[in-house]
Every structure is written in structure tokens, then in C-alpha cells.
Amino acid sequence: MHSFSHTKFIQNLEQQIEFKSISSVLLAVSYGQDSLCLLKLFLDLRTTFQFKLGVIHIDHQWRNDTVNSTKHLINIIGKFDISSYIYQLNPYSYSEIEFRDLRYQICLDTAKAHSYHYVATAHTATDKAETCIRNLFHSRNFDGLNSLLWLRRVSMSVQILRPLLNFTRAEIKWFCHYYILPIWFDYTNIYYKNHRNRLRHEIIPYVKHYYDTNLETQISRLLDNTYLDSEYLRQSTLKTYLTIRHKSFIALNHTMLLQQHKALQGRVLHLFFLHNTHVSISRLFLRRIVMKVQKNRKSTLRYHNLNINHNNNWLYLS
Known about the structure:
EC 6.3.4.19; tRNA processing; ligase; tRNA_Ile_lys_synt
């Protein structure tokens, strides 16, 4: 029997992801409610859509019960004819950021090694809202607000797929209760020393209670709209950079740069330095460069070990 969640899931595959091209999917799951919801939806639909499915789980061993919870997940997977790939990492060998990067790389390497074209994660609208609010404290522009996209190509053969990105936590909870899914409780999710947990259990419920009960939906719409704007700016930045860079030397035609909109000037300069030096220049320093160039006098600026020079037409490094 299919629920409204199945219908919504199919609509996501059809409208957001173009499911006709999906043939093999590696599900990156844990034992929580989001992951088990993703697993059941794909299992229920694999006969209809002829998916080749696999499951990958990485045990981070940050909790005392991770071995038992991994066994619990293996027992669930074992009931179905589905390939599984289980990894275990030593928590004392990696920081949280290093572990996140390593987990990401393991998923991609496994997908490539076993010919999966997609890696599906269980990110939801609630995750999208939480990520947006967290990024508000760190990002300097709209580009950094939305890091969770429906579909993102990460290599020539593998794409990251997020088919639950418009499911709220309430919908996921209902689905798990309705189908009596065997969720394993992760007690670290209630530790408030983790900033995301404090955001999830205090800030977001407060905003939803006093300001907007549809917070996740509103943030999701905002991010979808700003993503199109940001994508247009990114493409315009790349096009402008390729047009005004020197064909042989590490240089930019600053006369042509100043003819662009101010929104593009800083972005093109940032791309110029990132592409040629792998250095991310601060926005404040990029403004200094533009101001120097506008005065149209030969000068040199220094940024760490980089000498940034400009003459009549060209901005170049030495």
C-alpha cells in the first residue's frame, strides 16, 4: 500500500530529478528515521522503476552503542535482496571535519567501484532549513546559504541525489510511525553542546511557534529562488572571467573588468585568484584592488606572499 509520502517521493523523482535516467542508486543511510524512510521508499518503488539498489553505512564509533546500532541496521538490510557496504572508522584518528570529508570520499569511491550512478542521502527540508540558518552566521553572500541541492554532479560518473529535500521532519515522523519502522534512537542528538542540536530543539521550534509554522517550507522556497539567481551570477562570472583573462599570462584586463556590474567585479577577481593561486581573497581586500584600479595609477598591492600589480590595462601577479 502506498501513502501520500510515496506519491510525493515519485513526484520528486519525476519533476526535480528526472527519474527516467536513474538506473543504479547507492543509499547512504544510518539507522535514524530519515534514513529508514529513504530506504523504505526506494525499496517499495524499485520493482516499479527497476532500480539497482545498494546501501552504504559508515560507523563513526562516536557513541558506546554504535556497534549494536550497526548490527541493527545490518539486520534490517538483510531482509532484502540488496547489496550492502559497511565501513568502520576510528574516531580518535579524525576530527569531525576530517571524518565528514572521509565519509564523503568513501561514498564516492564505493559508488565508482560498484558502478552506481547516484548516491542518495536522506537530507530533508528540516536539514535544509537548519543548514541555511547555520550558514547565515558564516556566509557573506547568498551563494553560501544553500549547500543542499536536489542533484549535484561530483564526478563524471556519480551524482549526489537528495529526493527527500521537501519532506519535513513531521512528515518523516508520521511515515515511520505509520509503517512501524525500527528506528534506533541516537542519544547524541539531544546533546546541546552541539550547535545544530540547539538550533533544532530550541531556535527553530521557537521561530515556528511565534512567527511562522511553515518555516521549513518558506526557507526552502527562498533558497530555491535565490539558487537560480546565484547560479546565474556564477555562470556570468565564469563567462566574464574567460573573456577578460590574458590568453598566455596570469593577468586580467582590468579595463574590461570595470565595465562590468559591481556584483560581478568582486566575483571575477575572486575566481581569478582562486583559479591561479588557490588562495581565497577576502572581500575587503578585493574592494581595495578595485579601488586601486579605478584610480588608474600603476601600483603594487601585497596579499601574504602575492604581489598584485597593474598597469594601463592589465592586473597581473608577480
